TrEMBL record:
It comes from Desulfofervidus auxilii. One of its GO terms (molecular function) is methylenetetrahydrofolate reductase (NADH) activity. InterPro entries: FAD-linked_oxidoreductase-like, Mehydrof_redctse-like. Keywords: FAD, Flavoprotein, Oxidoreductase. GO terms for biological process: methionine biosynthetic process; tetrahydrofolate interconversion. Pfam families: MTHFR. It catalyses: (6S)-5-methyl-5,6,7,8-tetrahydrofolate + NAD(+) = (6R)-5,10-methylene-5,6,7,8-tetrahydrofolate + NADH + H(+). This is Methylenetetrahydrofolate reductase. Belongs to the methylenetetrahydrofolate reductase family. It comes from the Bacteria.
Length: 186
């Protein structure tokens, strides 16, 4: 993925929700469907504030079937020590790409009494991730968020922190997306 991005090529990714139970066969079965279709797979970290299998364990299984995982790191659930340990552990296992995300508040998930940690913000996390040799770091933006200007300021900070790639939320309104692109280019 890093080579494709450095050449300015279009990269196709898919989101992968780890299972809610320990099920290696399910991960491998779903991974094989994506194997020849995408360039990389974004492995979610407790998406929608719900408990799922570890994204690092899932990413390892994806590596074993020949996929390039992007491990999502949510700043919601862990402090900076745990996050850095996870990044180093994933890197040791062969993960080369990470994705920084705030994600949903824990109150909306299946453990509403869980305490959010938020020891770091995404800009700080991107700076930490960039210190790990050879890591590719991504983040996202919602091109339809309001007020968009505030999100663009935050995106600018992430770019200055060293983010390598940006993914958008799904695009269903092409005209508004073109406006978003012109704002970014401007």
């Amino acid at each position: 993925m890093k080579a494709a991005l450095s050449k300015g090529q279009f990269v196709v990714t898919a989101e992968f929700y780890p299972p809610k139970e320990a099920n290696k066969n399910e991960v491998e079965k779903r991974a094989l469907v994506l194997k020849d279709v995408v360039d990389a797979v974004l492995v979610r970290d407790n998406p929608l504030a719900q408990v799922h299998t570890s994204p690092i364990a899932t990413a390892t299984l994806l590596l074993n079937v020949g996929l390039a995982p992007i491990v999502q790191i949510s700043i919601r659930d862990k402090n900076r020590l745990a996050i850095q340990s996870d990044i180093l552990g994933a890197s040791t296992l062969g993960v080369k790409a990470f994705f920084c995300l705030e994600d949903c508040h824990q109150r909306v998930g299946d453990n509403p009494g869980a305490k959010g940690v938020f020891d770091l913000d995404c800009v700080q996390l991107i700076s930490i991730m960039k210190k790990i040799e050879h890591s590719l770091v991504g983040t996202r933006i919602n091109p339809f968020a309001h007020p968009l200007e505030l999100h663009l300021v935050n995106l600018s900070k992430k770019i200055n922190a060293g983010v390598d790639f940006i993914q958008t939320m799904p695009v269903f309104d092409l005209e508004r997306f073109k406006e978003f692109i012109s704002l970014i280019k401007g």
